[in-house]
Amino acid sequence: MHDADVIVFATPIYYYEMCGQLKTLLDRANPLYSSDYHFRDIYMLTSAAEDEEYVPERAVAGLTGWIDCFEKARLTGTVFAGGVSAPGETEGHPSLVRAYEMGKAIKG
């Protein structure tokens, strides 16, 4: 993470929040705080069985809280895939196009 130009976090939404594994990763990244980290742009991809637009808000807020500790970094984009509860249900999902276009727009 330290040397990355861009970081993309992806998580399923459980009970309106990021998964525990992602939260643990963020907590264990504390040593980056005082370092000369390279990343600036951070993206978040989320999915959930529910389809309402508000579903990822708490997860995004949790990541934003982490990003706020890194004054050179910013949340650059998010993509939410709602209505996904079984394997294969992301195939053809409109969020894939948004994620792809967002990725193409990254300057590296």
Distance from N terminus to C terminus (CA atoms, Å) equals: 16 Å
Q: Quick one: overall form? A: globular
Structural class: alpha/beta
Number of strands: 4
- Ranges where pLDDT stays below 50 over 5 or more residues in a row are none
Helical stretch tally: 3
Q: If you average the pLDDT, what whole number results?
A: 95
Sheet-strand content, in percent, reads 25-35%
CATH topology: Rossmann fold
The CATH class name reads Alpha Beta
| Domains, number | 1
Order of strands, main sheet, comes to 2-1-3-4
CATH-level-2 architecture = 3-Layer(aba) Sandwich
Describe what you observe in this structure.
- The chain has one domain (6-104): Flavodoxin domain (Rossmann fold), CATH 3.40.50.360.
- It is 29% helix and 26% strand.
- It contains three helices and four strands.
- The protein has helices at residues 20-28, 57-67, 94-104, and strands at residues 6-14, 17-18, 41-48, 74-82.
- A four-stranded mixed β-sheet has the order 2-1-3-4, sandwiched between helices.
- Helix 2 links the parallel strand 3 and strand 4 (74-82).
- The longest helix has 11 residues, at 57-67.
- The chain is globular, with a radius of gyration of 14 Å.
